[in-house]
Amino acid sequence: MPFTLTVNGESHALEVEEDTPLLYVLRDELRLNGARYGCGVGQCGACTVLCDGVPLRSCFVPAASLGGRALTTLEGLRAPDGALHPLQRAFLDEQAGQCAYCIPGMVMAAAALLREKPRPSEAEIRTALDANLCRCGSHNRIVRAIQRAAEELAR
Amino acid sequence: MSARLDRRSVLKGSLVLAFALAAPGVSGEAPRPKLPGDLARHPRLDAWLRIGADGKVTLMTGKVELGQGILTALGQLCADELDIELSRLTLLSGDTRHSPNEGTTAGSMSVSQGGSAVRQAAAEVRALLVGLASERLRVPARRLRVRDGTVSDPVSGGSVTYWSLVGGRTLNREATGTVTPKPASERRYVGRPVPRLDLPAKLTGEAIFVQDFRSDTLVHGRVVRAPSHGATLVEAGTSSVERMPGVLKVVRDGNFLGVIASKEWQAIKAAAALAGAVRWSEHATLPVEPHAWLLGAPSQDTVIQNTVRPAGPPPARTLEASYRRPYQMHGSIGPSCAVAEWDGDMLTVHTHSQSVFDTAEAIARMLGLPGEKVRGVHLHGAGCYGHNGADDAAADAALLARALPGRAVRVQWSRQDEHMCEPYGSAMVVKVRADVDEKGDVLDWNYELWSTPHGTRPGGNPGNLLAGRSLARPFPMPVPRNGGPPNYAADRNAIPLYAFPGQSVTTHLVTEMPLRVSSHRGLGAYANVFAIESFMDELAHAAKADPVGFRLRQLQDARAKAVIQRAAERFGWSKGRRSPNHGRGLGFARYKNLASYCAVCLEVFVEPDSHAIQVVRAVLAADAGEVVNPDGLTNQLEGGLVQSLSWSLKEAVRYDGQRILSRDWSTYPILTFSEVPPVEVVLLDRPGEPFLGAGEAAQGPTAAALANAVFEATGARVRDLPITPQRLAALRKG
């Protein structure tokens, strides 16, 4: 069954097996790298995208069920002129990441948090990211990057 | 600049060899001084550096980026010595066709071995180019200045660029070892927190990971793994799967079973259907009590240290204890992945392996191809922290690609594949006994450890690849050897750095491996340092001595003392008054007794009713010799500390007699954001001293600091990792 998916403001006509999770549509059909495969069962957060501004684990939600929703991936955070999102800049400024495989998911979770709560406390940031796993131990840098981005966005 | 690797331009450059420089005469020259690091294995300067006619400089390295920041550090070293901007430099890493073979990127040796080679090679190339400029400009070399590859004479104003001198040509020279790298005062990049070259691409979603590799011929493969160790495939009903949508091929060879489909989701579904349609014969082979099993299994026993104490007073007391570590995972966030393509003549494998050369060789032997017919190309993967599934995924992709010529087959392991099939860090048992004098200081130290191996990397042998062992004509797994000095493996850091007058250290290596094991960040050092530093704390307690002072008075190495003192000072060890249910702990080691010095101080709070352990704060002090990138080093050390806290608080592979039960993150939980303490890292920079590897230095000290802090908070000594509320509760009730 063909369906339409709106990703990063663009509409895409798609035809894939209807139970195909969003992750594989983003990566393989739309060639977007931001959402990453980590566990396939929504436990690690590496595949996080935004669905109408709310974090969504793209690895197990069928893409065909998301017609009419506004989906945003890491690639959609940049301004139309290509300027990095304050979160992307802040992650670079803090050098928040080692292998950085989990980082796009972190950035998306943080984007949703800041939208909901522009000035989160440190504890709120940690709680919001508790279901996003990092194995390199970059947690504190990631928290600092989100704090830095929050400050910049509040200015 | 971009760290992305532009192979095409390099290839083009390498074809323009027509104007190669004449090789210098070599007869009758004095013997060459010893070349540093990996330059000794690859003395040809062309193996490391190419100056393109377009002004681009390419540094080729056999070391690979694992998220540890090595390419940035190597770039800094190169740019400084060559006097170029870092943005002029492209790094080409881990390509068996183009890179020098620097072995495995492991063991905290990339800066010390690879970095020292790059520094020397770049310094020699600069000297060579300045010499050529001197001839061209007809001015003495010593008068020339170099800025971003342009050599100029301040007196005449004449100038010439590196690329106009040699652009596109080979240098045809070997390193001489006679050029001295710059003094620290003249460096622009080394010693500074240069941002990671690969991070911008990773933050904007560029295709940089092997998982992102795409080509017009790309198809998706999945392998159906045996449900348990040693299981054999009895019956595989493949015909219904072959008819599934998108399925291109089902591949079976002995116990190896895989499927290739056009789309990824089709491959996943086909693999699931295949898994449901096959029958395996399984046997209960796993030791449910791994530590008792280790102590009873046949072992290779080696005395690695035996210093007899000179005659002296008899000991006042004898203390002993034993410590245990479970099987633990690398737990990469991105499961292993590889892409292989067979064009009928050459097999190209894109892999995030740490040992691209050896793995390519093992794959060639598995497929019965000459070594030069398999090209391995490294691409980034998720952090691996040792030998994970990377090499096995590469072998899987190779087998599937061989069965479907002309298509690039991408194999992505599932989370369950990675959890169940990656080689774990070995379970270990340590028994330690000390005779102490009246003050409680150690007179005789007797230490024994039991472990399965810590090194089963491919090493060119297909018997070390899961796929290689699964074939109808299987390659037998070789019996692993223990590492031996100076790096050691199971017994890494088993010899204490303390100046105990009598010392005996024995390794019992059990080469049978009921659970698959291999190199896990720090190898045996994690358990050995945990044991030594926990026992030192027990001895200090018995001696009624302060744990910091107790260690200092038994150490002779000034740099060891300095890191302990610095950590304790920054932590406020001697100041703070202890709050109820809070405790402080210290752990120290010099990694491998030859790399970085690292001391960790932790404060914990233990909730009295639930025994929940919260790490309140951490301070780490390290001496890594000369520091190339302080921010990168800090990131590695802090990351290592946090990862070790995760291992030491939460992690143990769960299994029953037959199967691995830790198959996802709910059955193998790791540390989360709310559980990560603030960490302060203090670096003792030693410009002019050799680089000391640091990537694995924090693992052992952190575990011991945790145990020691929990002891101070509760009076209970947990000698089994991980240190869980359940264990603590059992001890406190007992």
UniProtKB/TrEMBL annotation, chain A:
Entry's Gene Ontology molecular function annotations: 2 iron, 2 sulfur cluster binding; metal ion binding; oxidoreductase activity
Keyword line: 2Fe-2S, Iron, Iron-sulfur, Metal-binding, Oxidoreductase
Keyword Metal-binding belongs to the record: yes
Boundaries of every 2Fe-2S ferredoxin-type domain copy: 1-77
Pfam families associated with the record: Fer2 (PF00111), Fer2_2 (PF01799)
Top-level division of the source organism's lineage: Bacteria
Name of the featured protein: (2Fe-2S)-binding protein
TrEMBL record, chain B:
Domain of life: Bacteria
Residue intervals of the Aldehyde oxidase/xanthine dehydrogenase a/b hammerhead domain: 204-284
PROSITE patterns: TAT (PS51318)
This protein's record includes keyword Ubl conjugation: no
Identification of the protein by name: Aldehyde dehydrogenase
Organism listed in the record: Archangium violaceum Cb vi76
Keyword RNA-binding carried by entry: no
Keywords noted in UniProt: Signal
Molecular-function GO terms, alphabetical: oxidoreductase activity
Coiled coil: none
